[in-house]
Design brief:
Layout: E1 4-8, H1 12-24, E2 28-32, H2 35-45, E3 49-53, H3 61-69, E4 78-83, E5 96-99, H4 104-114
Parallel strand pairs: 1-2, 1-3, 3-4, 4-5
Helix pairs in contact: 1-4, 2-3
């Protein structure tokens, strides 16, 4: 069964490019356009990894990830923060932080390495 990747980004073009890259490598992809949607979708799909944009409407990626870490069945999910500016969050909240712009292939590589058995 392919790993499930949740892409949480309010930029439709970026989310689409990331989704295409992950699908091309055989991952199952679910998408959210803000942090609140990301939490709802994470609860429904139990993703193996989340690509979390930081600056999103409704709920930003930092608050969404803090909330996610408090959900027992999702505490171990791998979360990559993506931001065009420095991430202002407590150490250890995110498993990996990348600076935008980031190549979709680079995200696929990061996730593939982190999901190795």
């Amino acid at each position: 069964m392919p790993a499930i990747i949740l892409l949480a980004d309010d930029n439709d073009l970026a989310r689409s490019m990331y989704a295409d890259a992950f699908r091309a490598e055989g991952y199952q992809v679910v998408e959210a356009s803000n942090g609140q949607e990301a939490l709802q979708i994470a609860r429904m799909h139990s993703p193996d990894a989340i690509i979390m944009d930081i600056a999103m409407p409704v709920m930003d990626g930092v608050l969404a990830t803090r909330t996610l870490r408090g959900i027992p069945e999702l505490t171990g999910v791998f979360v990559v923060a993506c931001s065009g500016m420095p991430v202002n969050a407590e150490p250890g909240l995110f498993d990996y932080v990348v600076t935008k712009p980031v190549a979709p292939s680079a995200l696929v590589t990061i996730v593939a390495q982190m999901l190795l058995p």
